[in-house]
Amino acid sequence: MNSRCASVSKIIPFSCVDGPGSRLTLFLQGCNLRCKNCHNPWTMGRCNDCGECVPQCPHQALSLNMSKVVWHSDICQQCDTCLQMCPQQATPMAQTMSVNEVLRHIRKASLFIEGITVSGGEATTQLPFVIALFSAIKADPQLQHLTCMVDSNGWLGETGWQKLLPVCDGVMLDFKAWDSAYHMQLTGRDNATIKRSILFLAKRGKLAELRLLVIPGQVDYLHHIEPLAAFITQLGRVPVRLNAFHAHGVYGEAKAWANATPEDVEQLAKELRKRGVDNLIYPALYL
């Protein structure tokens, strides 16, 4: 199991924004949604070695070898040219890593962190790897004190959650829109599966945080505040994090969307509190 591999976009050894406390965050490559507001749009797809990025790199940090795109990290200047022109919404900098390789990174940081968070992309698109990684952490006397959490969009069926939850301490889940048609417009998929995931996780005490992203003029939370608040209330005392959209780093039409202000967030918070949803977490910053 420890030889199972995943496509890894990035590892951040110390993060304080990806779950409780200081955490190592593992970003996996690939996503099953296509959110217009995604701040990591190059993590959506998988590199298919088309090679279009190679001649475009201004620092010659990419090459083709045996029809495979090779990234030369020693000369890469992190200019992101390859990310912005990739037709697959992928990155040539993603690495194939085994569970054992990731464990080596975790061991280096283990004395300074409280847990690990697997994010993405969408972590559950590489579910067997996540299960193998968490199982290895739980079985290791030097690492088993670490909490294992997933940052997810919720697009996973009940069978998948049943496999993951025995080794997962909690899931932080994004709820992008109430109306399914609206969700389709924002992400390319409806949200029926996501609503089922939220209820399934909350019932089992594994929904660590529900996240609502405030995007002025683009989300429908206020239009459906009554059913939204009733839905959240039935989850119990689950923390609800209100995040503020900012256009920095997004691609396409979302670059022209307005940034969320403290007033935008407070408007939603006020309406939720009126209806008994008061376990709210406000954004740490606004841009």
UniProtKB/TrEMBL annotation:
Iron-sulfur found in the keyword field: yes
Residues annotated as domain 4Fe-4S ferredoxin-type: 38-65, 67-96
Chain's gene name: yjjW
Organism listed in the record: Citrobacter murliniae
Domain of life: Bacteria
Name of the protein: YjjW family glycine radical enzyme activase
Family: Belongs to the organic radical-activating enzymes family.
Ranges that cross the membrane: none
SUPFAM superfamilies in the record: 4Fe-4S ferredoxins (SSF54862), Radical SAM enzymes (SSF102114)
Keywords: 4Fe-4S, Iron, Iron-sulfur, Metal-binding, Oxidoreductase, S-adenosyl-L-methionine
